UniProtKB/TrEMBL annotation:
Keywords: Periplasm, Signal. One of its GO terms (cellular component) is periplasmic space. The lineage of its organism: Bacteria, Pseudomonadati, Pseudomonadota, Alphaproteobacteria, Hyphomicrobiales. Its main location: periplasm. This is Extracellular solute-binding protein.
Amino acid sequence: MQKKLTKLLAAAALGLAFTATAASADPVTVFHDKPFYQSGWDGLTAAAKKDGIDLNFSAYATDQFQAYIQSSLMSGEAPQAFTWWNGTKLKEIVDSGQLAPLDDLWAKKIASGEYDASSAAPFTVDGHIYGMPTGLNRWVVLYNKALFEKAGIAKPPATWEELIAAADKLKAAGITPFNATIQDGWRGFVWFQELLIRTNPEAYAALNQGKLKYTDEPVKNVFKIWTDFYQKGYFTDPTSQEEPLDFARGKAGMYLFGDWVIGLVEKGGVKAGTDFGAFIMPNVDPSLPNSVIVEGAPIVITKAGMENPDVVKFADWYMGENAMNSWATDPGLYAGNLKAKTPNPIITDLAKIATDGKYNSITRYWEASPSEIVLPAVEEFNRFMTNPSPEQAEKAMANIEAIASQYWASHQ
């Protein structure tokens, strides 16, 4: 009982510390749980100061941050601006009724040519936009130009048939086609989500809404393709803990991942656009609409925040060219502003491809499906990747469905 009381008092003290900071601080303060971007936050603060905006970023550990935001929303005393996640996690706090819709701000920025309307999709809930992007990261396939040349592949694949042909040519040249691991424990869903949207995007949406079972045919088809790829030797060792560096070292010809990994790959001594390029994975069925997984991380503003002229000024500035030029420099993230510079030439090319091809943005599995399902599902995907047999695939589907069916039975 004493330990429980101590924890409660500590949590209350933390909440009071947050509230006091939010209430007494003169600058516009954005709360977040991303201290690894500290130099980037500092760059934004300096850029804002030049434009007459007093800005501050306040970092906290993720678990404390989430607990505080959720409790402060319940008490009606949330900070005026803070970072969050998209998908189901964003909808949960939108449902509190305290977030401000940013439709007018986005309409202004789209009309000015600074943003494409598709950039708002990851932050849209029930027809309204509730976030300003700290990142808009497309999940694409990086490819090693030298290895493609060695294997006799003239250009990046534009169809599924060309993708398989490229994989076979790489394999014949003694090169593993795809880089894929379970590094850090969360990456198991990467190929699962991609294969499902490339075969049946409607099934992907239904699965994340509890309207499709993990034992239904569309999911079985994904595991069939996935298993076949493993049997053909298309994948690298799944247990490596140096996935981005493995690709930089030439251990595979292609690498399916979020484009935010480009900077990590470059730390291996290769250069984006020169040594490696990128393409959006083609659909298995060419009649399907163009689509791409987009991972979006927003800054949200409460209704109370939108009553503060300084916060309104900050929001308009943050989505502008000066702020986004700073953000593209450090930490080197693309956040959708079409007039700002992009971190590297690959991001530039991908943005153009996505816009010209009218690609639909699809929410990443991690944010699209409830966490109560995602976390155990990823463990099952990981087990499959380390033992990619038909039997393990069947176990994975059955085990995930047991968890999903129990969840949806109490949430629909």
